[in-house]
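We treat protein structure as text, and this decision shapes the records that our systems exchange. The tokens are whole numbers drawn from a learned vocabulary of local backbone shapes. Below, we set out a record of this kind in full and without editing:
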Amino acid sequence: MSLSCNAEFTAAEHERILREIESTDTNCIGPTLRSVYDGQEHGLFMDKLEGRIRNHDREIEKMCNHHFQGFVDSITELLKVRGEAQKLKLLTSMDELRQCRLQQRNIATTIDKLTHCLPGTNIGPSKVQKKYYPALRTLEQLEESCLPQAGSYRFCGIMSENIPRLRTHIRDVSMSDLKDFLESIRKHSDKIGETAMKQCCSSVQVMCLSLTHIILQIPGAQDLVDFSPVYRCLHIYTVLGARDTFENYYRKQRRKQARLVLQPHSNMHETLEGYRRYFNQIVGFFVVEDHILHTTQGLVNRAYVEELWELALSKTIAALRTHSVFAFICFLFLTEMDIIHPLSSPVSLQGYGFPVNQLFDMLLEMRDQYGEILLKKWNQSFRQILDQDNYSPIPVASPEEYQRIAGQFPFQDPELDKMPFPKKLPFSEFVPKVYSQLKEFIYACLKYSEDLHLSSTEIDDMIRKSTNLLLTRTLSHCLQYAIKKKNVGLAELVQIIINTTHLEQSCHYLEEFISNITNVPPDTINATKLYGTSTFKDARHAAEEEIYTNLNQKIDQFLQLADYDWTAAQGGAQASDYLSDLIAFLCSTFAVFTHLPGKVAQTACMSACKHLSTSLLQLLLEGDVRQVSMGALQQFNVDVKECERFARAGPVPGFQGDTLLLAFIDLRQLLDLFTQWDWSTYLADYGRPTCKYLRVNPQTALTLLEKMKDTSRKNNMFAQFRKNERDKQKLIDTVVKQLRNLIATNQA
């Protein structure tokens, strides 16, 4: 019973499983199959499954048999559709091929049309490279040839519409380059002018005429400035048919710049650099314009350049004619030859059509100013030479050194030539230096006159007159300054006399020097002669007078040391100390005078002795000395004898006999009269030519006698009762009375 039940259950279970397999998605039959394998009747289930499969196969076979004809028909229909599909596909390919061929033809046509427009692709690079003219030519080619051949395409229309705009852009860009060029040359015109002036010829003169000379003669302004912006812009405007517009614009801008360049800066006169920049700017401006004139066809013409030249003349001359600038220009000529450059010759200027009359008038006008500036400059040079000189003979150690000095100053002395080295020249350093400066001055005058279109005679006359002014005014004043300045010593004065003597002897060499450089013989009729001889003579005489004055001042200084005891009872046996020192000073001083001309030394010695004699007499008679004793007079007599001994010794050679003693004759006769008390002889012989005391003035004798009278009374106030003293006092009173009568008689 139980086995039967189990079999039924198993069969039912297998049936359920099969239904699940048939109805369940294959992804979910895993649990179902697992229950089959987990069961005990695995084999039975497999048999059951095989039977179910066979049943389904029979059903499928029945179904297939039922629908076979329809299937066949469907296959047949499908085969027909495939053939039609292939035909349809072929038609589509043919349409695509046709479309492709059409595109190829269009591309070829496009390439052909664009080929005509290829020149337009060069416009961009041409503008970048500033090849504006090729760009314009390309636009013209596009407009006149390429675009018409390309046809009426939209891109052709766009290109055609842009051509005017591109032309305008090219014109504006080239004009921008021109403006940059104009601004650049405005800023750098001084550099352009400086470079141009350095390339100018070496003849040196004042700036104004040099403008044209530099403009016309310098090699290659294109080496100084890049003119390509001007040429490009001129070409562009010419191609565009607007050349007149460009010419007018260029000239207008350059006229404005000319006015700016020609207007001096307010502080120009303050520095040399200000003048240098002003002149360089003017030169630089005309360098550019001259180059434009000769390298462009009509951008500027001769009339335009001449107009600017006239403007430059008027402005520059007006500036240079002002007093301060006028003088400063001459100063610049002396100090900064690179600022004020060569005057161009009139032949060169007139050959280029430039009028130069105004310039020559100005230069002639400047000549006097220039001469004054020359004199001022050489005044400083002479002052410096005289201040720095040591006023000592020049020592010469070797023949080479001697030849060097002889090359600077024409000096000949056969006696000195025979002397061995080392030796000394008689003059100091200032002689060759002054002579060299005189020659330099003559050269400076010649340089100014070189290109003034003057004849040789006129140049010679101008140089000689200027040199005379230098000698008679400038050098003369400098020598007077050196002679008159404080603390100048006798040795210096002596050397000045020696120096001026040698300079005077060199004057004829200066005459020859001027004649050689002007080619005008010195003996030409109406030729101006140099006044050097008189100048140096005057200076020498002034030095001599200064020596006399200086000696007298020294004598006065020693006399201030005199300390006489005017009431002394008895005089000494020796000369006073101050006088001994004075005589020693005079001896040493006159020893230095050995190189002076004999007459100068003799005059100086005589003058000193006369001054000493006069000063001693004044010392004796001065009002502060109220009493003079016989003892003081005896000491004074000893001092005068010392002076006479000095004169008799001959401190300088050349005096005949006792000529120098005559300087002390007044003192000697006065002292002899008092020390010998020889009043009877004096009063008896007064007025006779053979009078022993001819040089004694009654007033002088009276003044001294009254001093002695007062002394006698004071010293003998207690001895007035002695007979001798009373007699002496009476005698003095009598002599005083007689002297007064004598003086009164002479005055009547």
